[in-house]
Amino acid sequence: MLIRKIITGIFMLTLSIGLSGCVSVAAWERGNLAKPQMALDPHPLQSTVRMHNYGSREAAASTHSAEGGGGCGCY
Amino acid sequence: MVNNKKGSHRGDSSHLIVDSCQSYPIKITSVSTLACATFSESSTTTSKALQALTSAALVLPGLLLTPAHASDADRINFQFSRYQEGKRDLFGVPNNLKPITADVLHGSGIFSLTDRTKFNFSYTQDTWSGATPITISPLAANGNRPILGNTATGITTVGASPIINNSQVLLDRDLNPLRQDSQNHQLMNKDPRSVMVLSSASPETRNQANFGLSREWNEAALNVSGGFSRERDYKSNFGNVSGRLDFNQKLTSVKFGSGYTSSNISAILDHDASPYITKTAFSRQIESRGGSEILQGNRHDWTGNLGLTQVLTKNALLEANIGYTHSNGYMENPYKVMTVIFVDPAVLNNNQTTPITGDMRALLEQRPNVRNQVAINTKYIQYISAFDAALHLGYRLSTDDWGINTHTFDANWVQPIGSGWTLTPRIRYYSQDAAGFYNPYLFSQQTYRRNEVDSLGRQIWIDAKNPNIQYVRDSSFNLIDQNGNLVNEALLNVQPKTASFDAGKLPENFSSDHRLAGFGALSGGVTLNKMIMKGVALEAGFEYYTRASSMQLGSGGRNGFADFDYYVANAALKLDLESTNLSMPGRNLSQHQDSPTHHQHKAPPAGIMFGHMLDKPGDFMVGYRFMHSWTNGNMMHGAHKVNDQTIVDQGCSDTTLCRFTPTYMNMRMHMLDIMYAPAKWWNIMLMPTFMDMDMNLRTLAGRPAPVPGVHEHQGIAGHETGAVGDTMISSLVKLIDIPGHRVHMSLGLSAPTGKVDLQLRRLFQIDGGLIHFGMQLGSGTWDFMPNLTYAGEYNRWSWGAQVNGIKRMENQNKSGYRLGDVFQATTWGGYDLTRWLTASVRGAYTVQGAIHRDFNSFNARIGPMDFPANYGGQFWDIGLGLNAIIPGGRFAGNRFSFEWVQPVRNDFNGFQLERKGALSATWSYRF
To answer: Is A22 on the interface with B (CB under 8 A)?
Structure first.
């Protein structure tokens, strides 16, 4: 299946980038990375609201599902 | 501002760190403050460069956290959000149903228990109401029928009623729906269009709470959390474990998580629709109780995910996650039905060309009992040095064994714009394929119900009283039993034996829920963040979302009837407790231990509002106030119990007898107290409120018999309302401030932000009308709220008194009535049990007028709570309270207070339910 291939491909690519160890950013070079705008989720409150709305209106699966949550949102 | 071009030079790198301590206090505060602390403590022994290096390394744990861990500083957030849907397109059918609205109140916090252990919690309450689609039918079948009402201006359309069953649709021989002219019933063209059939709903509320504990190590973190979500029809409990491991000098982080959710569905089926819905597939799950049919189900969800965050360069990082969810159990929406058009194959195949009639029926939807979902998402974040901005690009792919594949693309541009402002525009595109079992409606080539015949082709008859014995008729139409003997038909109640359709000829699963259809959606929005002072930030977000069948990737366009749009607006207050300089770990605490007793006066009991002032110009206070009041038990008239017959005869009006009376009503109110001192003598205060209420009714003994066409309360379900209440703003002025004695005056205004036109849903084809006065969420009028407070203290003793009132400044609100004015006098005394704990006793007298005027539109008038004279009265209460202020340590400066208010004597206006008491709880924090 095409989708399976895509999933495997993306994951392997990411994994290889991550574990290759070819990346080297010295500690004193990480100033920009530490800025609030570079946070993985700069606005977590906004994300929660949006994810709840998308979740009640769309049928997609989430990669955040292990964070818990419940309820029907049956509207 | 950090200049990244110089980053490789050691001398500059120390500037970089120091600068980041000063310039970026928003999310990274605790980490950068920590970095600064490390910097100063170790400065005597190590070089600056090494300190910088250490500091930079310390910056990273905050950077590489998942969203769940992201807020690593001790903090508290409050947020209010409103979801508003646009009207659905019903293709010209008049429709006055209000679209769906949801109001969401959210509060969350993280507190350090030790240096490395944190406790986090969050609470969410949402209330929604409005019209929701229950099925889809051919437009030609006229599913949304206009309701005609006789009004002063003649007969007009007052609503749209969902007709989901017992309805027929004309079809051509290829099963295309045919449109019939509504006037002369002549056939017109084929009409392939489908339409959503909408049904209104009374407000419903959901509460969710999460609690978690997390622990950080140098290169790892672990978080354990759990919680519950409660709705009237859907209860779930969940727990999960997640963690993080850092590698490669924290350039690489691996995250993992696993969770389990158990849900219990107990849905009261729609009174109106239930008799017309075919529920045979779920008959074993449906029980009858108190006149309601309740569909029971269980559902289990197991999830696991694995993620990787990788720093790519000094300006870019990448995140990838994969998640798997396995669900089993009842995954249907109990309120959604499938339109099945039964076509008699004998008629369809009779070789004629004339239109045939389809028998339209509604069946509860059926979804598979198992679902496996896989999702993968990647996120790339790039720092754009020319703008000091960050670009976030995301893509998510998900697939499941229901056949739903989805693609999501999103982009955010996070732009700091100086003076503490950050502006983040965002855009998102989403596309999904339809579930394999999704269909707008189904055809089934069989009759919905048919007469049974025996092996000889003779129709079978049964006695309704004894359906196990079968009869047939002979050639003279005489009834004979199975032995061929004639039977005296006059003694029996003879009916044809019928069989319902063969469910085996239907698909195994079917749903017309438009969320399982194929579609695309485009949304865009903006988030605005403003740091208003150190540790205090305001955030506002807006998003517009439009869904269109035609935007589906690859194909699409067939489900245009389900297109809709919505917008979401939200506002949040975020407090970073560590930057407010009161609970910072590792600091010299002695000065703070003194401050509560030396600089701050004793607080009044929890039930007192506007009872204290801030003393120093520039001081800021944020607080949360919760009140829960209970009424239940006996119905009272004045100060005395009354029996049902008296309520029936006198509780309503001269012309209307009462039929129902409340059994209980509970009200919960959440208020945010935000207080600021522009001057020593002057404070301003803003108090937004959020409330929710629930009540139930019972039938009065001796009530008049039901009249057709008049609203009756039926079933076991009560009513719920909730959302934003009125918003108070107040100006407090200090009049006297001498040692031991203080007097201040507060002049407040209450703005009518709470709704006063909430309606009950239509039930049994009868409009519910406006919900009872006491269940509306605000006064609906601008109100003046003056108050005068005196407080004194001597050694361990404290005392005080307050007079306050509410004067309605308008004659009527938009629903035509106004609440009575209120006057209250109260006095209290307190004694310090310890340095941080005070006990108080309070007496209060309250008088409130009855409601003036009346509803200006339809209200069902079924009981005392629907009549203006049955509101207000005189009340004498005693309050017992405890106030605590945390004197030192991490949580120094937090104040908590609780008070139970016990009614001692009530003298009600008219007929009202007994008051049982109220609990007030407050938390506040000054900085």
So the answer is: no
